[in-house]
Design a protein that fits this description.
39% of the residues lie in helices and 19% in strands. It is of the alpha+beta class. It folds into 2 domains: 124 residues, Ribosomal Protein L22, Chain A, CATH 3.90.470.20; 31 residues. The strands form 2 sheets. The chain has a 3-stranded antiparallel beta sheet. Strands 2-3 form a two-stranded antiparallel ribbon. Helix 1 crosses helix 4.
């Protein structure tokens, strides 16, 4: 999906039935599947001490908020440490669902909106939206709770594409020559394995 700013609001479907054989294909001696089973779920959770956010706000002020929060998030958070900590934890949890962590995506690529009902919702931009598309993840649900000392968030998404591990979409731009050669060798080995399996 292009980064058009529209929230991803397709409903999350229930888990799929795999039939009576619930043993992974690798355990049965089959080659690893190139795509995840239908309805593969991803879960992320994060906890943070509110005092860490409070200290960062006192030390760095608006620069810290501007680095982590989108303008819409800043308007809602208004540098309240507990609320900010909840958004921080939610962004971390969502980044784990995407399998890259915030350092692989960017703080402002994950936006936590507040719906009119008060429920938090996830809006993805840039690299986070590209990663979500790569994984076939149409929606990520998030829940946040905080009290005076800690904020906790959990995020949940359902993957419909990619294998057991999927490289980030911009991996080529991040690789050095040695890593590119190694990846090319791995691709050749995979192709040989598929060819051997067919013949």
């Amino acid at each position: 999906m292009a980064d058009d700013g529209a929230p991803r609001d397709a409903p999350v479907s229930g888990h799929s039935e795999r039939g009576s054989d619930t043993q992974p294909s690798e355990a049965r001696g089959d080659a690893p599947a190139s795509h995840p089973p239908e309805g593969t779920t991803e879960l992320g959770i994060d906890i943070i001490k509110v005092d860490r956010i409070r200290a960062a706000l006192e030390r760095f002020g608006p620069r810290f908020s501007g680095r982590v929060l989108t303008p819409a998030e800043s308007r809602y958070v208004r540098d309240r440490p507990e609320t900010f900590a909840g958004r921080w934890a939610a962004k971390e949890a969502v980044s784990k669902v995407l399998g890259l962590g915030v350092r692989g995506i960017g703080w402002r690529d994950i936006e936590i909106e507040r719906l009119p009902t008060g429920q938090p919702a996830v809006r993805l931009h840039g690299r986070a939206a590209a990663r979500s598309d790569q994984l076939g993840m149409e929606r990520i649900a998030v829940s946040i709770t905080h009290e005076s000392d800690y904020a906790v968030a959990i995020a949940f998404g359902i993957r419909t594409a990619g294998g057991r591990y999927v490289f980030p979409p911009d991996i080529e731009a991040r690789l050095d020559d040695r890593e590119r050669k190694l990846l090319a060798r791995m691709d050749r080995l995979r192709a040989l394995a598929v060819e051997a399996e067919r013949g």
